[in-house]
Every structure is written in structure tokens, then in C-alpha cells.
Amino acid sequence: MPESSNALIELRNVSKNFGPNKVLRDVSFELYPGEIHSLVGENGAGKSTSLGLMYGLLQPDAGEVCIEGKPVTIESPAHAKALGVSCVFQELSLAGGVSVAENIFAGHTPARFGVIDRATLKKQAEALLADFGVDIDVMQNVDNLSISMRQIVEIAKALSLKSKILLLDEPTSALTPDEVESLFLVLKKLAKKGIGIIYISHHMSEIFSICDRITTLRDGRQINTYQVAHTHSGQIVSDMIGGEVPISQSSNTNVRGPVVLEAENLTLAGEFKDISFCLHSAEIIGIAGLMGSRRSLIAKTIAGLVSGWSGEMRIKNTPVHFCSLLAAIQAGVGYVPQERKTEGLFLDFSVCDNLIAASLEKHTKHGVLSKASAAKTAAQAIADFSIKTDSHDIPMRSLSGGNQQKVMLAKWLERDPKILVIDEPTKGVDIGAKFQIHRELRKRANNGMAIVVVSSDFSELATLVDRIIVVRDGEIAGEIQACDASEEKILKLAASGLQAKQPTKILTSRSTVS
Amino acid sequence: MSSTKSMPSFTAENASVNPSIVVRLLRNILKTRETTLLILILAIVVTMSVVSPYFLSVGNFRAVAVGMMPTAIIVIGMAILLASGGFDLSVGSVMALSSTVVALLLVAGVPIPLAVGLGLVLGAVAGLINGLLITRVGINPLVATLGTMSIARGFALVLTEGYSISNLPKEFGFIGKASVAGIPAFDLAMRHSRFFRQVYFIGANEKAALLSGIAVNKVRIIGYVITGTLAALAGVLLASRLMSGTPTAGSALELQVLAAAVIGGASLRGGEGTIMGAFLGVVFVALINNSMTMLAVSIYWQVIVTGTVLVSAVAIDMLVRRKVA
Questions:
Q1: Which of A18, A350, A367 faces B11 most closely, judged by CB atoms?
Q2: Global pTM value
């Protein structure tokens, strides 16, 4: 990078405390024009805090934030935007019920005499999205878009401000390989124009394929800043976890038990058809598929959240036909949803309350909840999953994403279901937390639980599960045993026949370290 | 970082993380809306005892208690509904309807226990209808209960042709002296029972509650049935006290109840608030109004003050939370 030029934005010896927690200690890095700079670290390492400081959500307790060499106090996101800093968060912030174009230009809608200039709005929005190779009707309601499309709209929204500094927090977590490719093209184009980009991601291969420099953080401390050419993923990971890379446990050593769940020709008109498989106790199976493969819908059907399906389902040889989650729960099925913030957790309630939410009756005697029993459960779950929290009584919201994910999972394991269905067990979770979640799932399976994991992260499936059922367009495309599963094989099955493209190239952009 | 909502703390007290003594002190005092209100109520009582010789008397307190009775009973249900993310505008009308129906039954010679029972069942049915409209049909609580509010009021007027029904049997008068033991009982249940814990979960995140295996619709319907029944109970007690059934009773009561509950710490966003808080909210508003009457402030000004208290209570709460966070 042109070290001589002035940095666009710089953190100088910045520290930040939340009460007694030192979340950032003496961190310094800078972002140059045209640079893509990655911040990596486990959840709670200080990435989001750094982002918050640059985006005016937080102010440093010590040190300073400089823009173009001048120390500034960024008072608010609006102030940050005025200074040329835009940010796209992991959680989408689009306004439902409003058109794509209006969302993109929210806050600076083109208008003539106070009346929205629809023609200009449409033209500008289309031009922005064309950069992504995306061709959609920009006047349609954003609610009609898929999650990945919304993510792209979100980034377009940030770019519409003509910012010099773009902060991206896990921008690819909901994107398909194709969309990731087109996003990267756009980011490279932006960098060429002199825009500086801070890029946060857990996907090591993404970081190495797109970033110029990498700053590693651990427990709020800056470990190192590297030129990409002078480092490798092993070094980054060991910086992040502070030691050697944990070797993921071999998964196919355990002996699977009797069949617990049999699905025969599950069909839902217009969605999926003839889905048949069986699941043994003490076994983890994966359902893999690209976006639109209906992998999540199949999981939801098993959990009783879908009605109107046909076919047969048997649990321990007893035919069942769930039409509600409650019925499925009665039959011993647990379901961990994909979206922890909107579907999984009660963010304003305490960690303890969240942990017991799915098993209230277990802690109830004569209709009265027992504090002692709940606290005991919470302490156990916090220990089992190494959940990082000051106590079980602080609000869920204050935990990092990985720890929230652990709580959501622990909530269901607390019920000890016979069959556990999990949609994206480690979405947006760092390597350490991912490892702990995988370890805990394997432990439960070894104790006899039957687990179905749905994931778009094929490398996760390849290491975690015993068997992988690959679905494509709502039909089973094939089954792969763990012993010869690889990300590439899964992707080939999941994508074959869809379109002629080079899967290997896509692979490089998605593979993660685990 | 946000502070935990004022759901009754189920686990131990929050660990304090505030460095400043002033903030910590403020926070401890204002930690629960209940203590804040209790302090304010005591302040009113002390001040008024000094200012007015008539305030500190059994007669005055009895008048305040009797006056706030319908609100105090109905606010229990409203607090439950608010915690679950809903509310009920039909409470005032259902109270009037039950008071007139019970009065009509009594005049027709139906025995007192049966008449009272039927009145309560009527309230439960009204609540059930609200609950079904909201959960099964999917009508927004505002629209659904606005509709039933109008319908219930209409029935009360049709049945009585707009007149109050009096000449009730003398024995009926004793019912009005029912105790307020219901408040602490409901408060304890709300804090410690599984059922009400589900209410909070639903109010905080309905989707997550559903996916946690909580029978969301059932719990919400039960909330409306409880509220309808309590509104009917208030109607019965009112009829007993006045010895007549009044079809126009309790108009705008729903808004007074909502205001008191919110002053007591409930929120229209759901997931928070307690019964004791809501009850203290009722007491607080009743005492303020009583004080103003004592001080010969016009009744019209009292309405303005109630509104100001409502907005200030919520505003102060927001500011304190922001400071503490």
C-alpha cells in the first residue's frame, strides 16, 4: 500500500471499556485509499467495537480516531456518513414495505420541490445495482427479495452515499458463491477508485483472496498487522486463538444406533418432492444445498413447522404427521432456527431466561418456576459451551454473536430431544465458537442424540457430520459418506446441472478454516 | 449495552457496572418502577398530610380506594396483556355490560350467586372473542378490541335502553366490600409462575417464543380471557357499590387503565412490566387526582396533569435507561 499517502482513517492507540471489561486495549491501525483491510479475530476480540468507533456508535476511552490525519470525534453514524464513512452491518437494516430504490436512497432521496423524483430514483438505483451484475426491478418491495439479494441492496445503499470509507461486517454470510464473486468484483472496482474498505469476515479464503492487509485481534489486543503476501492462514488463526489450530475431531468413529426417524417421499407441492432418508440415533446427518434448494424448508417440515406436506414420516416406527412445532416437540424433536436474533433469542432478557425458555416445565413445580434449578442449568450450560459471560443474569444482547449462538443451541439441548434439527449451527460465528459448538454436538450424538444439520457452509458439513444428503431444487441429488466427503464433492452434487460454471473457482471464495 | 428490561428479575440482582456513585445511587433507587412509585406515593402522602388537614383521614382514603377500584382490578389484566405485547380497549365497555346484565338478572329474580357467575362468564366470553379475533383471525389488537369495545357498549345500551337499572336486592350490596388480596396474588403469579413467564417471552419476541415451543396463541387467548373476566368482576363490584347497573359506566376507562399500567412500568412494546407496578401506577394517579381535589384544583386541570404524568414517567424512564446503559 502507498505508505506515503495519508491514511483515510486511523485508530491511534485506542482503548475502550464497557464497565470493567476492556474490550479494546491500545489498538492502532490505518486504512489507506484503495486498500482492503481485514480485521480478524474471534467473537469478542474487538472487531465490532473497532467498527463502532469508526462509525460513531462508540467513542474511545483513550487514544483517538483520525480521518485524513486529523483527530476527530465521530459523534454519531450520521456524523460518520457526513465524514465519508459508511457501514454495512451483519444484520440487515432495510425498511420493509418500501421499494428497493427508496431503500437504497433512504435519507437522500432525489426529489424535485419536495416530491420524490421517481424516474431519477429508478435510474440511479438501477445504475448502482448494475455494478453488482444484479438485474432486478428496483421499484419492487424489498420484502419480495431473498436474504442474499437484500444484502446486496444493503451494500448498494452504503455505496449510494459516495463514501470514501466503507466498513463491511460479514457481508457474505448470506450470499451464494456466485453473489460473493460479483460482490468481490465490485469491491475491487471500488478499491481501484481509491475507496478504502474495512472488511470483517470469518472466511479465511475470502480474506486472502480480496484483502491487502490483515490486522489480527484477540481479547481486545492487537496481535499483528500483516501484508497479505507475507502471511498465511495458519498464522492468522493461531493469532486469533492464541495457540495452535485445534484439529477438528474425526467424526465417523462412533457406532450409530437404531433408526429413529424415517422419512419417505416427503413432498410439498411446488417446493420439494420425494425426500426420503433415515436417521439413526447417535448419528449426525447433514442436509446440504445451495440457496433455493429448499434445504431449510425440509428441516422445518421435520420440525412440524410446515403444513400441507404429503409422504410418510415415522419416529421409532410410529407414523407421525406433525402440523405444529408443539406436536413435534411432544414427539421428541427439537428445532434450532437459523436467525438467532429474530427467531431464536429474547435479547432483552437474561442469559438464564434464554437458556430455560424451551424447557420451562422442567424447572416448574406446581406451576411455580424454581430459581435455583434454572440457575443450576444456566451454570452448567455456560460451562459446557464455554459461554463467555460475566454472569447468567446479564441481558442476552450484551453477548457476542458466537456466544449468543451457543445459548440458542444450549436452550434446545437442555430439553434433551431425541432428534435435534439445526438450521445453520454456526452462522456468523468465529472459529473458536464453531469448534466448541461442533464438539458439543458430537458429544450429544455420542450419547445417543440423532441430529440433522442444515448448512450452506459445506466445509462445516464435511467435518461435522457422518452422512450428507445433498438436495438440489427440492430433490435429493445424492448422498455422501463422511469418509469421502469434501467441500468440492458436495458442491458438485449440489450445483450440477444447474449451470455451467467452474465450481473450483467458486470454492476458493467460500472455503473456511475449521 | 442495554439494561435488562423490568421483567421481574428471575435470577439474582444485576451486577452493577457503574463507576459513578451518583449514577449508581440513582440507578439503585430507580432500579424498579415499583420503588420509584412507592417513594413518590409516600412523598404525596407526607406532603398532603402537611398541606391539607382532611387528607390523612380514613374517610378520604376509603374514598380514594373505592374510586380506584375498577381501574385497580382491570389493570391486572391489562398488565398481563401489555407484557404479552397486546392490550384490550374493550375493558370499560365490558365492565358496563356486565354491570347492567347482572343488574337485569337480579331484577328478574335470578339468585345473586348465579347472576354474578353469569356476569363473570359474560366477561370471559368477551375476552375469548377478543383473543380469538386477535390470534386465530389475525386482527390487530387495536382494531379487534376497538370493535368489541363498541359492540359491548352497544349491547349495554340496547339491553337497558340507556337507563340505569336500579332496585337491586339489598343483599347484593355486600359484595362491593371485596378485598384487594387479588393484587399481590396475581403479582406473585406473574413473577414466579411458568404461565406468566411465557407471557413475557411472547411479548419480547413472539417468533422466538413460538420456536421455543411455547403455545403462543393459547397463552395470549388466556390473557384476554383473564382481562375480560376481571373487567366483568369490576362491573359486578361497581353495580354492588352503586346498587344499580349503569350502561354508560367506565367510558374512557380503558385509557386510564393503560396510562396507569404504563406509568407502572409496562410498555406497549411488550415483554416488561409487573402487576405490582401497574397497581402502584393506579394508586399514584388516584392520589394525585385526590390531592388536586383537596387543593381545589379544577377537575379539568386534573386531566391535563394525568397526561403530563404519563408522558413524564415514560420520558424519565427513557432518560435514566440511556444514562445507565
A1: A350
A2: 0.71
